[in-house]
Design goal:
The chain has about 250 residues and is an alpha+beta fold. It has helices spanning about 5-30, 205-210, and strands at about 30-35, 40-45, 55-60, 70, 75-80, 90, 100-105, 110-120, 135-140, 175-180, 185-190, 195-200, 225-230, 235-245. The protein has two domains: about 1-30; about 35-245, Jelly Rolls.
Amino acid sequence: MNTKSMINTITRSLAVFLIGFIFWRTDVFHLFELKSPETGILGKTEVLFDGKSLKGWHGFNKTGEVKNWTVIDGALVCLGAAADAKGGDLVTDQEYDNFELSWSWKIEQGSNSGLMYHVVEDPKYHTTYETGPEYQIIDDLGWPDKLEEWQKTGANYAMHIPNNQKKLMPVGEWNTSKIVFNHGHVENWLNGIKIVEFEAWTDDWKKRKNEGKWKDYPDYGLAKTGHIALQDHGHKAYFKDIKIIRL
């Protein structure tokens, strides 16, 4: 083998090794660089759901085995065992403050669910929504009762309603959602479109809280760091591709 051939062989071998090492690191640590196509945010992305297990998650204010959530065909599935949104929510082991969170989800006809952030675990709180703002997920068209705009999918539940750009996939089909929380600036995205934008803790925010559903929940929305929560509202819901970038 001449010198030129030897150099080419070594170069190819090194390239194969580096590619393999990169994929190994990604598999072990579930971290990689990702740039958001909508917001342009570039950072280390953490995969919160591995598609195989409930590793990294636990029941809200609970320890031990989780029985009302399972993994089916690579999706994290709520079996809908809780009664009226109490007692069955799933939360991340870790806490997050400023972030871009993205995920895919689908629900069945007549289902209700949601995703909360900045959730505080403490025995004095009986539900995740006592502290954590909620990205609403619900069957807008098939829910048996009339829904107010603040109750519909993509709303900052009971606080800020989606704009008229919202495009929701039919029940049973996958949607993609995103929440950006950056030092009080908040954005809710649905299927690639920003549908809610507001500033937390402003006078307007406080007015909405004190005059609405959360007036009897003094700690709602005040935490600046906390867990991510998936809601068991007594209905089946499916989640996958759950990723977060710390800002």
